[in-house]
Amino acid sequence: MTRHRGTLRGILGGVLLLTVWEAVARGFSLPAYTLPAVSDILAAAWQHRAVLAAAGWITAQEALAGYAIGTIVGIGLAGLLVVAPLLRGPVLPTAMAINSVPVVAWSPLVLLWLGVGMGSKIAMVALAVGFTVFLSALAGFDRVDRRSVDLMRSFGAGPAGVFWRLRLPAALPLIAAGMRVATVRSLIVAIVTEMLGAYGGLGWVIYQSVTLIDFVQVWSAILVASAISLAFFGLVGAIERRVIFWR
Amino acid sequence: MQTTTTALLEMQSIGKRFGAVQALDGFAMDVEPGEFVTVVGPSGCGKSTLFNIVAGLEEPDEGGILRFKGRGCHAKELLGRVSFMPQRDLLLPWRNVVDNAILAREIEGANRAAMRAEARAMLPEFGLAGFEKQYPHQLSGGMRQRVALMRTFLFERELMLLDEPFGALDALTRSMMQRWLLDIWQRHRRTILFITHDVDEAIFLGDRVLVMTARPGRVKLMRKVELPRPRKAELVTSPEFTAIKREVLDAIEEEAMKSFVAETAA
């Protein structure tokens, strides 16, 4: 009930914002490079739907592939540090050092190493997503109640048994929270990396349109990016609510 | 002279030190098969340390003797050999009643389907009939505790360690659970070592009541409870019960004063 009311309120807020936007853009006859009208953006998006769909598809593939790789590596690495605590010493500071620089700062290097194709975007997304998920998974694994671990041990469970039956499920809420945040990051990083060098994708469309002074097209690409991001976020959130039913 | 070969668990001059704290010192006791022994003592007297040693989670210091079924052993060899129930139910929130109850057996490698069937058949006895598909967050405190007890019972070991299993329950639920536990115990014939803060509970349940000293924990008093079984609720007001209670309370009082003085002086 409350969730539906929240959704309704969100939609109403969105409609209100778009109406004000349209009124301001039209009322003050703002030039397109400042703020184009919503109706113009929608019309342009429809007109260029084939180009935008193709670009969106490329970006979505990069984001999804990077997301999948980052999630698996992040959870796996966190799990490894839990099963082999001796690795914590060398691994954790290294991870923190890499993560202390904004991920996007690595883009030029990664483009140099992996080329201008999709590989470099996937690697960048995996890097960004991997750290987010790694840190939340590690926090999740560490949060487990010591007394629960003792109970499992008294039942004769070894470290592997404790991990599968206790640590992993107990860490799921935090892992899922990290994964939800990472959805949005995955698109941002894919698009920014595309802007720095790519053969296609929404970031590339944005960059090209700016050089062609086609600001309505920039906004259309942003629109598509937001839609994909929102859908991805919603999907992961919905899966999360299904899987973690006990909270 | 082997006079104690029948004991299930024997402990002699068991000590345990954590840094500056001597939790146990010269602790000794025997538990006979099928016996119900209750342990009371002032807070911080090392009851939990005692349980952690018997559960195999903590190794006692050098020099003590620990025997299980007549054979000397390290505490860690007891992991998986006694069924341990900690104070809090520690049910896994992502497992339903039946899957929580079979957890210990599942770890042991038992067939899941067969175990589930066995657990389902036990539900009525534990007052959980019709609740097999419920999750812990849907149950009351008393029911959660019964699921935890069921998990402990299903893990069929000769010795059961129960650490204040009813501590968090209200008085009424608690006395019902006590009679219910005695009933189950008499039918399943396990050996039980039971920690509690509640003197009435200790006497009502136990064949023997063990009173521990203030830290470092030793045996202050081992009192046999010669009250007939099955025990009824009205037993607690009988003169025999009151006499034992007087004796046990005096012993606890003395120790509680000691630890109180020690704490306020520190």
Name a few traits of the molecule:
heterodimer; A: 247 residues; MetI-like fold; B: 266 residues; six-stranded mixed β-sheet; four-stranded antiparallel β-sheet; 8 helices
Please, could you describe this protein's structure?
- The complex is a heterodimer of chains A (247) and B (266).
- With 247 residues, chain A is an all-alpha fold.
- Chain A has a single domain (37-243), classed as MetI-like fold (Orthogonal Bundle).
- In chain A, 82% of the residues lie in helices and 0% in strands.
- Chain A contains ten helices and no strands.
- Chain A has helices at residues 2-27, 38-47, 49-83, 88-99, 107-114, 118-142, 146-154, 159-196, 202-211, 215-243.
- The longest helix of chain A is centred in the C-terminal third of the chain and has 38 residues, at 159-196.
- The two termini of chain A are 18 Å apart.
- The model of chain A has no long low-confidence stretch (mean pLDDT 92).
- Chain B is of the alpha/beta class.
- Chain B has eight helices and ten strands.
- Chain B has helices at residues 47-55, 97-101, 103-108, 112-122, 141-154, 171-188, 199-205, 239-265, and strands at 9-18, 21-31, 36-40, 65-68, 71-72, 83-85, 159-163, 191-195, 208-212, 219-224.
- In chain B, the strands form two sheets. In chain B, strands 6-7-8-3-9-10 form a six-stranded mixed β-sheet, with helices on both faces. A four-stranded antiparallel β-sheet of chain B has the order 2-1-4-5, with no helix packed on it.
- In chain B, a hairpin with a 2-residue loop joins strand 4 (65-68) and strand 5.
- The longest helix of chain B is centred in the last third of the chain and has 27 residues, at 239-265.
- The mean pLDDT of chain B is 89.
- The chains are: A mainly alpha (247), B alpha/beta (266).
- Chain A: It comes from Neoroseomonas lacus.
- Chain A: InterPro entries: MetI-like, MetI-like_sf.
- Chain A: Keywords: Cell membrane, Membrane, Transmembrane, Transmembrane helix, Transport.
- Chain A: It is found in: Cell membrane.
- Chain A: Belongs to the binding-protein-dependent transport system permease family.
- Chain B: GO terms for molecular function: ATP binding; ATP hydrolysis activity.
